[in-house]
């Protein structure tokens, strides 16, 4: 316990408090010896990062309980409804391989807050392989992961607005249609409009430069 507290940068008293609040899973026991591992350390660093971002211990405790004992991970990540996105199970080492030094507790906490990441036992689950691949590719191009996550948060607001527009159109003009058949058509409209918008933006940037 002393070794874990030192590595996490907290006091043993704080660690005991976290254990009592069930913010971290119990250690593996061999006789009278309690063994902690990298997953405990990652959880403690995530708690510290969430506290720095203004989350309360009660909120973090509810999140930890949901991750460890409560809802199915698909429901927790918002994948209870039908989706075309494929969740990806990862280890902390997988994240380090993809994001290198950008795989910080602060970025992990931000990903949790966005709902990109959840935990299922000892594993980390990313909500979407497409998002994961795109995010890691952007980081490899030199864009900080914090900037990618901030952009993702802004894009989500616009994506929610687009989904609302098309949902209203479908419910108003084709209420009996199969949503699974119409969904790809709406996605094609969004992809085409985004492609055209990028073209316009790039032409404007070239003119200004």
Number of strands: 5
Q: How many domains?
A: 3
Order of helices and strands: HHEEHHHEHHEEHHH
Structure classification: mainly alpha
What's the gyration radius in Å?
A: 21 Å
State the end-to-end distance. 58 Å
Q: What's the mean pLDDT score?
A: 83
Tally of contiguous helical segments: 10
Q: What is the general shape?
A: elongated
Structural summary, described in words:
The chain is mostly helical. Helices cover 66% and strands 8% of the residues. It has helices spanning 2-8, 12-20, 38-52, 57-69, 73-76, 92-99, 105-114, 129-140, 145-173, 179-208, and strands at residues 28-30, 33-35, 88-90, 117-120, 123-126.
Descriptive labels:
209 residues; mainly alpha; Multidrug-efflux Transporter Regulator, Chain: A, Domain 2; 3-stranded antiparallel beta sheet; two-stranded antiparallel sheet; 10 helices
Helix/strand layout:
Blueprint: H1 2-8, H2 12-20, E1 28-30, E2 33-35, H3 38-52, H4 57-69, H5 73-76, E3 88-90, H6 92-99, H7 105-114, E4 117-120, E5 123-126, H8 129-140, H9 145-173, H10 179-208
Antiparallel strand pairs: 1-2, 3-5, 4-5
Helix pairs in contact: 3-7, 7-9
Structure at a glance:
The chain is mainly alpha-helical and 209 residues long.
């Amino acid at each position: 316990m002393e070794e874990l507290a030192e590595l996490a940068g907290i006091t043993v008293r704080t660690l005991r408090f976290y254990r009592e609040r069930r913010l971290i899973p119990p250690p593996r026991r061999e006789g009278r010896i309690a063994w902690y591992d990298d997953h405990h350390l990652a959880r403690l660093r995530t708690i510290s990062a969430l506290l720095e971002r203004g989350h309360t211990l009660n909120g973090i405790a509810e999140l930890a309980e949901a991750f460890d004992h409560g809802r199915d991970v698909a429901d927790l990540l918002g994948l209870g409804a039908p989706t075309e996105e494929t969740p990806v199970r990862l280890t902390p080492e997988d994240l380090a391989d993809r994001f290198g030094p950008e795989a910080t507790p602060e970025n992990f906490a931000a990903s949790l807050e966005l709902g990109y990441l959840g935990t299922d036992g000892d594993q980390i689950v990313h909500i979407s392989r497409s998002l994961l691949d795109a995010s890691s590719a952007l980081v490899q191009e030199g864009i900080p992961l914090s900037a990618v996550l901030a952009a993702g948060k802004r894009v989500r607001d616009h994506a929610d607005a687009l989904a609302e527009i098309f949902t209203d159109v479908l419910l108003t003009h084709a209420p009996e249609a199969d949503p699974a058949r119409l969904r790809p058509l709406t996605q094609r409209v969004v992809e085409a409009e985004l492609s055209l918008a990028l073209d316009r933006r790039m032409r404007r940037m070239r003119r200004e430069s």
